[in-house]
């Protein structure tokens, strides 16, 4: 007698294995569904509004001397990135 490809073997636990796989798949789908719901509930704003918020934020912050196009040129003595003028550290004899 020849066995069919889907026939359970003696001592096999095929039904419970299928059930546990189905439960695992259901749990993963429920987790994915929850994450998608959280994404859907997240506050969304238009890009133009986000850009304006960013511009307004940067206008209130201290000047960034690395962006002269935004803040204009900076006096050398106020620029922390300018090379320091020293009176000399060495004496020639």
Automatic annotation (TrEMBL):
<dbReference type="InterPro" id="IPR036284">
    <property type="entry name" value="GGL_sf"/>
</dbReference>
<dbReference type="Pfam" id="PF00631">
    <property type="entry name" value="G-gamma"/>
</dbReference>
<keyword id="KW-0807">Transducer</keyword>
<protein>
    <recommendedName>
        <fullName>Guanine nucleotide-binding protein subunit gamma</fullName>
    </recommendedName>
</protein>
<dbReference type="InterPro" id="IPR015898">
    <property type="entry name" value="G-protein_gamma-like_dom"/>
</dbReference>
<comment type="subunit">
    <text>G proteins are composed of 3 units, alpha, beta and gamma.</text>
</comment>
<dbReference type="GO" id="GO:0007186">
    <property type="term" value="P:G protein-coupled receptor signaling pathway"/>
</dbReference>
<keyword id="KW-0472">Membrane</keyword>
<feature type="region of interest" description="Disordered">
    <location>
        <begin position="1"/>
        <end position="21"/>
    </location>
</feature>
<dbReference type="GO" id="GO:0000750">
    <property type="term" value="P:pheromone-dependent signal transduction involved in conjugation with cellular fusion"/>
</dbReference>
<keyword id="KW-0488">Methylation</keyword>
<dbReference type="GO" id="GO:0005834">
    <property type="term" value="C:heterotrimeric G-protein complex"/>
</dbReference>
<feature type="domain" description="G protein gamma">
    <location>
        <begin position="17"/>
        <end position="93"/>
    </location>
</feature>
<comment type="similarity">
    <text>Belongs to the G protein gamma family.</text>
</comment>
<dbReference type="GO" id="GO:0031681">
    <property type="term" value="F:G-protein beta-subunit binding"/>
</dbReference>
<keyword id="KW-0636">Prenylation</keyword>
<keyword id="KW-0449">Lipoprotein</keyword>
<keyword id="KW-0564">Palmitate</keyword>
<dbReference type="InterPro" id="IPR041848">
    <property type="entry name" value="Ste18_fungal"/>
</dbReference>
């Amino acid at each position: 007698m020849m066995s069919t490809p889907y026939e359970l073997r003696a001592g096999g636990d095929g039904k419970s294995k299928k059930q546990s796989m189905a439960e695992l798949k259901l749990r993963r789908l429920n987790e994915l569904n929850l994450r998608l719901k959280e994404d859907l509930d997240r506050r969304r704003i238009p890009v133009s509004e986000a850009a304006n918020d960013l511009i307004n934020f940067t206008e209130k912050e201290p000047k960034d001397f690395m962006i002269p196009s935004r803040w204009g040129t900076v006096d050398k003595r106020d620029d922390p990135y300018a090379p320091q003028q020293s009176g000399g550290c060495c004496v020639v004899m």
